[in-house]
Design goal:
Elements lengths: L1 E7 L2 E11 L9 E10 L10 E5 L15 H7 L3 E6 L11 H4 L5 H8 L4 H16 L5 E6 L1 H12 L4 E7 L9 H22 L3 H14 L12 H5 L10 H10 L2 E4 L2 E4 L1 H10 L6 H6 L13 H6 L23 H4 L1 H4 L2 H9 L9 H5 L5 E6 L7 H10 L3 E6 L6 H17 L4
Parallel strand pairs: 4-5, 4-6, 6-7, 7-10, 10-11
Antiparallel strand pairs: 1-2, 2-3, 3-5, 8-9
Helix pairs in contact: 1-18, 3-15, 4-5
């Protein structure tokens, strides 16, 4: 472990780099670096506070970079020292990018490498870090946002003795449902979100159809050289699960066109906004492993793409253009340049039918770790019905079901949400 010190006004950091096995089943094999930033308040420096591990949503995104001591982090720092883990492949951990993946000699070698970046490996990393950072017999509390909650549920399956409590926001995963059922609920919820969007912004029906017609009739290029197609434009619905998602899209399309010598065309500002909107190409773990994070002894076989034909609303040429959300489609690996060289490996992972099981149902059925989960009633990414089914299967799980927040509740009102979850595991409410 290598550690350096850093501070900003109101926060002290210990920045740790750990050399860990790439494959925890082969501890003597190749290594990678995993980075974690330990955060404390200056007033608590040197105090023996318990630790809280934060796991970010994703997959494929690093922990937040603290700018101040507000929000959920400020609330956590009242009671804990907080460990912000850059999950393997992200941030300052040995990164997985389209450039680094280009170094593999074959698609099968790349696929085998990427298969080591799911929640099972992330939790194994966390266990190594816990022992090195806190001590062999130590325990900590886990806070998991979205996919971080998936990791937390896996943690309960494999090493519950290391956990004082688990707190989950928008990420209590389905542990028994087939992937097709999960995506059908997601598509149905997304149709509802699209309707709500156009109810709020009825003028966008014609505005968005005009954009789609222009894309159909013209070869429109983003600044990275990729062609913007209608189906690429539709992926901007990824934000529909966030509290500000409708507004983000509306303000983008509201100023899409610019007049140039009497001709209307899409503006540079609009096209740059589209390119910056999603992170499918800058975070390839998200694109390649989004379906495999659900894989348990079965192939995913591009589930979202297979089921799309059941929902004709997304391909209607009359009326509103419906946007897709957290769905990954094979065409992305053809149209988007940064992903183009990854298509064969993505196909191999989609066809893999021997994924290790992530959730030990017997062990979860005997859980004794206190768990509190904020379940967002209108969540388009993690269907509420599956979260509640999982809660019913795991003793000790208390749920707070609310429609006050969307999926980004922890970012919007983190101090209140974390405070309530802590009260729940402590028996105060």
């Amino acid at each position: 472990m290598r550690t350096t010190r850093q501070s900003i006004p109101g926060l002290n950091f210990l920045e740790h780099e750990f050399e860990l096995p790439l494959d925890h089943q082969r501890p003597d094999g190749p290594k990678l670096t995993v980075f974690a930033r330990e955060v404390t308040k200056p007033a608590n420096e040197g105090k023996a506070l318990p630790a809280l591990l934060f796991l970010q949503g994703g997959p494929g995104f690093p922990s937040p970079r603290p700018l101040d001591g507000g929000g959920w982090l400020g609330r956590a720092l009242e009671d804990f020292r907080v460990v912000l883990l850059d999950q393997r492949g992200t941030g300052r951990s040995t990164p997985v990018t389209h450039e680094s993946l280009g170094g593999f000699s074959s698609a099968s070698e790349m696929a085998e490498h990427l298969a080591l970046f799911r929640s099972d490996s992330i939790v194994s990393d966390a266990e190594c870090i816990r022992r090195q950072l806190l001590g062999e017999e130590s325990t900590w509390t886990l806070l998991g946002q979205s996919y971080g909650g998936f990791c937390g549920t896996h943690y309960l399956s494999v090493a519950p003795e290391s956990l004082d409590a688990v707190l989950i926001t928008g990420g209590l995963p389905a542990i028994a449902a087939p992937l097709e059922e999960i995506y059908r609920q997601t598509y149905s919820k997304l149709i509802e979100k699209n309707r709500l969007y156009y109810d709020r912004y009825p003028g966008d029906v014609d505005r968005i159809r005009k954009i789609a017609a222009f894309l159909d009739e013209n070869d429109v290029r983003l600044s990275n050289g990729d062609r913007l197609t209608v189906r690429g434009f539709q992926t901007l619905g990824l934000s529909f699960g966030m509290s500000d998602g409708f507004e983000r899209l509306h303000y983008l399309v509201d100023e899409a066109f610019v007049d140039v010598q009497g001709a209307s065309r899409l503006s540079y500002g609009f096209l740059r906004g589209v390119q910056n909107y999603n992170a499918y190409d800058t975070n390839p773990i998200f694109s390649i492993l989004h379906e495999p994070i659900y894989g348990q002894e079965a192939a995913t076989n591009w589930c979202a793409a297979r089921l799309r034909s059941e929902y004709k609303q997304f391909d209607e040429t009359d009326g509103p253009l419906y946007f897709t959300c957290e769905m990954i489609f094979p065409w992305m690996f053809e149209e988007w340049g940064a992903l183009r060289g990854l298509r064969e490996a993505a196909d191999l992972l989609a066809a893999r039918d021997d994924w290790p099981r992530l959730y030990d149902h017997e062990r979860l059925a005997n859980n004794t770790v206190p768990v509190a989960a904020a379940v967002y009633h209108d969540d388009v990414y993690v269907p509420v019905a599956h979260s509640l089914d999982t809660a019913a299967r795991i003793p000790g799980v208390r749920t707070w079901v609310t429609n006050e927040y969307e999926h980004n509740g922890l970012r919007v009102d983190g101090a209140r949400i974390l405070g309530r979850l802590l009260d729940m595991v402590r028996g105060n409410v």
